[in-house]
Design brief:
Elements (H helix, E strand, L loop, with lengths): L5 E5 L10 H9 L2 E6 L6 H6 L8 E6 L8 H17 L4 E5 L9 H8 L5 E4 L4 H9 L10 E5 L4 H9 L3 E5 L5 H10 L7 E4 L7 E4 L12 E5 L16
Parallel strand pairs: 1-4, 1-5, 2-3, 2-4, 6-7
Antiparallel strand pairs: 7-10, 8-9, 8-10
């Protein structure tokens, strides 16, 4: 019996019209579909592509409890072995991932456990970084710019150091870290250039200036875009750098 193929399928940022044709084909033909899910069974990744799934497909929720009594590694070990059983039986498996599978994607942990044992293919998806710049309507970076993606979980000192040497940047994973990030932006004089966006490409998308954001309501699916300053050919500017 031939082994199944493992697919990491990027499903984008929330708008089902933005998934690729290849992702759609795989989603509609694989016998097994797996996806990250909360303990109550909800899955953002699945909700994006729910209309494309087939009634005869086997669905495998990958549940990572909010409060971990065991390490996250243990849960990924268990999920990988469950998927390996289907793959060993010759069934192709598609693992859904919000955004792009290899850009802060949970699929990476499945990939690390199974890609040496089974044929694996990663289908790129539109990441929140690219989608947010498009929704805000700003060119993100020009020519030889230094562009950085930073996690809001980083310390203020590290955020400050990184932003001082970048021409453009996006800060992700805001949530309860927003106040800390805002303070750094104020110190560097970047508040006016920065834009806040949450739930990019979705019906409840919201785009605000930094000072308009209500700190108590900032969700996990939000980020800050600091786009490069306008550069025409032959014209040099300093960007974010101070």
């Amino acid at each position: 019996m031939s082994l199944g193929c493992l697919y990491g399928v990027g499903v984008g940022t929330g708008n089902p019209e933005l998934i690729t044709l290849k992702s759609l084909r795989i989603l509609q033909t694989v016998p097994v579909v797996a996806y990250p899910a909360s303990e109550d069974g909800n899955s953002f990744a699945r909700s994006i592509v729910a209309e494309f799934l087939q009634s005869n497909q086997i669905e495998v929720p990958i549940v990572l409890p909010f409060k971990l009594e065991k390490s996250a590694q243990t849960f990924y070990d268990q999920a990988a072995e469950e998927l390996a059983k289907h793959l060993s039986n010759g069934k192709d498996v598609a693992v859904l991932c919000e955004g792009d599978p290899f850009f802060y994607g949970s699929f990476m942990y499945i990939f690390n456990r199974l890609s040496q044992r089974f044929t694996t293919e990663v289908i790129p998806g539109i990441s929140s970084v690219m989608a947010s710049a498009a929704m805000i309507g700003v060119p993100l970076t020009y020519r030889n710019d230094v562009f950085m993606v930073l996690s809001a979980i980083l310390s203020q000192e590290v955020l400050r150091q990184k932003l001082q040497v970048a021409d453009a940047a996006i800060i992700i994973k805001l949530g309860r870290n927003f106040s800390k990030v805002k303070q750094v932006l104020q110190e560097l004089g970047l508040v006016e250039r920065a834009k806040y966006i949450e739930y990019a490409t979705m019906e409840n998308q919201k785009i605000l200036s930094i000072n308009e954001v209500e700190i108590e309501t900032v969700p996990y699916f939000s980020l800050i875009v600091i786009a490069s300053e306008l550069k025409e050919l032959g014209v040099s500017t300093t960007g974010v750098r101070s």
